[in-house]
Model the fold of this input.
Amino acid sequence: MESSPSPSSSSPFDMVSSALGRYIPRGAAAAAADPQGDSAARQRVHANSPPGRQEQILGVVNLDRELRIAGGNLDAPVFAGVEAVTGSPFVDLLPPWDVPTVTRRLRQVLETGEPHVARVQRLRRDDGSELVVSMSILAAAAPQEGLTVTVIAMAKRLHLYAAETAIGTSLDIGETAQSLAESLLAWGDVAAIDLDFAVWTGEVVTEQPQRRIRLRRAALVPDRAWPDGYVTPGDDLPSDASRLLSQAIRRDDAAQAIVLPDRAAIERVLGSARLVRALVPSDRAAGVAYIPLVLDGAPPVVLGVAEIWRRADRPFHDSELLDLQELVARTSHHVDLARQHQREHTQVLALQRRLLPRSGGDTIETASIYQPATPDSAGVGGDWVNSFPLPDGRTALVVGDVVGHGLGAAATMGQLSMEARALLSAGLAPDEVLEHLDETVTLLDDAESGLAAGYSALGSTCCIAVYDPVSHQVALSSAGHLPPVLVPPDGPGGPVEIRPHPGLGAEFALREPFEVHAFAAPPGSLLALYTDGLVEDPALPIDEGIGMLADAVSTVHPWDGLPQAARRLVSALAPAHRRDDVTLLLARMIGYRKEDTATWRLPARIDAAARARMLVSVLLGQWGTRDDTRDTVLLVVSELVANAVRFATGPITLRLIRTGDGLLCEVGDTGNGRPRLGRGGLMDDGGRGLHVVHGLTTRWGVRWTDTGKVVWASVAR
Done:
């Protein structure tokens, strides 16, 4: 009894052979070696095989780094005519139209080391015929360099099993359709997948026999140049062609496969030269089988059509049509699953884009980039950014990274984003907002009162920065998020030094008070907020990735447009093979000019209101304010200062800001009571001041500070 080699000494050929043996029943290899032979011939081959040994259907070719053949084993009879000549380019074994695609795959595996497995491929024989194989590309085992290419000769039935394994590994509709088309090449020269437009866009598909199907080409193989006018992936089929195909496959309202055996039948059915140019791949194509993609149900739903084209010397047999129908039927539910994920992807991406900042305003310029890790819904939903003006003239910049992806993460993301915006607009400081978000994440993880669908947002991160355009200061709080990068106008950039904090929803024993870190951001400063997908690379320390971002942001010139700069930064820094979403928010500080603001400190005395009116009146005269606006501002300032003297202690801070469309009055004091607009009338002593302010201003509110509160009011000019 022969001993099997140890894994360490096994060659790629031996390992693939061993793995293949577990999936091929005894005797199936002999059938695979002679897929066109009769039953008696297959029995003779099996009878003459040594005991316990099956005829080889696996071959291997070794390539150097120049993609030239360095050796291999294609000695099995099934590979007769496929000559792997040492020193010749591997692409010499391929049909010309497959050379660009396969070359791209080979170089990709050579550069990344990630294998490309189970590609349905044709190899050229010396006599001009072709052999269908399942080809896998692997990096050569050390100490060898280059690639190892394994090929498995595919019998039709074995091909069904291999195709079913390969199809459905992606949730992207285009990739699923492409996998099906590549698998169908075992039965034809050209394969195309045309899907109902509703399937392509992820819409709900229902059975409507009278509805005219709009078909869009989702996949086409092989990859080569096509005649002018031919429908290629992404194109809609002509309306006449969609109507003809839908009527043909829905005979008696039951979807059926149809075969047009020759060129004459094709031209007779299509009826016009324009449709022939659009649907027939070349003059050599003389026969076609149309196989509907049907989703089982009551009634069944047609998702699209698979087309398999052949030359005149290869007519379709009944057994082949059964195999084709079986493969397409097994694929239909994968297509529908991809459609559902496409619908989810569209919904989640719409939510992402809805939350992206629209504009920065007069005192700050912003630009944002969001790129999901993958094109399907499973890669969308975790990261979010937002920037918005606060009612008191400041600007909030928020970035977060919710654990996970998909609808669960998107729902949590939307809730946290809207909650943060509402709390910041209500005047809460960044650290107070994070405390509320922390509690929200904890509640969402409670199976009884939150998300009971197996999704947990514990460990999500968030960073909130609030920019004051008058003082040119930024107040920042972070919950487990990476530090922002600040580039001042007169120096190199670097990460903002903040104390690390656990993410949102941390255990009670790990919770610490959130801190507010304040720093100067003079006009012209650039602040970059981002998520880890932009700077995280398995090959580099995270600090080095942040340093590379700081260096890149430092290269942004003061007059560079931020949208273009953001795209350039993401293109330069984002990993080529992303495992996480990439999010970047750039903010250029502008602020108010000194001549547009004024600040006074007043003692909390009974004459403070009169003193405030005098100071403001002089300033409004210098600004050239209209008389009616001046009278309104003086009355609002008088009421706010009087309320501060009455209900608070300590000094009073009065600030007046000339904005683009009005005047902003701010009165700060040391009180901690919240002013409320009561139900009383104007003559009631307890609420008259706020009623006056409410009636004269476009908006007013309160924000809290470390020393008390600030009541602000906006007056239109």
Notes: DSSP finds 18 helices and 25 strands in the chain.
